[in-house]
Amino acid sequence: xxxxxxxxxxxxxxxxxxxxxxxxxxxxxxxxxxxxxxxxxxxxxxxxxxxxxxxxxxxxxxxxxxxxxxxxxxxxxxxxxxxxxxxxxxxxxxxxxxxxxxxxxxxxxxxxxxxxxxxxxxxxxxxxxxxxxxxxxxxxxxxxxxxxxxxxxxxxxxxxxxxxxxxxxxxxxxxxxxxxxxxxxxxxxxxxxxxxxxxxxxxxxxxxxxxxxxxxxxxxxxxxxxxxxxxxxxxxxxxxxxxxxxxxxxxxxxx
Length: 255
Fold this sequence. Notes:
By secondary structure, the chain is of the alpha+beta class. It has two domains: 7-155, Four Helix Bundle (Hemerythrin (Met), subunit A), CATH 1.20.120; 165-250, Nonspecific Lipid-transfer Protein, Chain A (2-Layer Sandwich), CATH 3.30.1050. Helix content is 53%, strand content 11%. It is built from eleven helices and six strands. A hairpin with a 2-residue loop joins strand 1 (123-126) and strand 2 (129-132). Helix 3 packs antiparallel against helix 7 (133-155) and helix 8 (165-174) packs across helix 10. The longest helix is centred in the middle third of the chain and has 23 residues, at 133-155. The mean pLDDT is 92.
């Protein structure tokens, strides 16, 4: 690990190291195992992470516009972020597993270096709009954790929840207004999350004013729901207030 100072960047570096340990032990057959990402196998997921880390490097370096323009030209017709990601993966399929692992590892290290060397309060351009470099780092940590879970699930490995999920849960809480707006909806009022961490301690994310809606339960379950990897009906999450059902339906950690 580098001389990382900021906890969010340190968490991102740790997610990369954990996924690297898993990938380095995979067989040729496991690299071709289908994942929870429909139409993608493990190699596709790793390629997507390498590509999106490269986009994040461009964002942090002030060059996202040029890279996004190139990426958009890989699409056939109009489409959203998911369509662009799928098109990018389709275009570059065929690399050997060794090439994929090397490329992803290199991009991951470069991203950590870039973020670790900059003022994380700097505003940067991203696919979801203007945000701070710190938020960009958190979205990359979140996506790395999500796709590491996809790989683990595909090859029958276990992904153990860690304290790093605090950043994922906070991102899910802070971006609730964005999630509602993307769905053409408005929150009835601010919300708070009162979660139980993987170690059993309490994590509270609360607004400045009185919350209209309160969500409670295990942080790991909330993060999996926000990652769209777990149906809220299959969790022990609960809440009170007018937006409980809509929050658990719309909460997310990615654009």
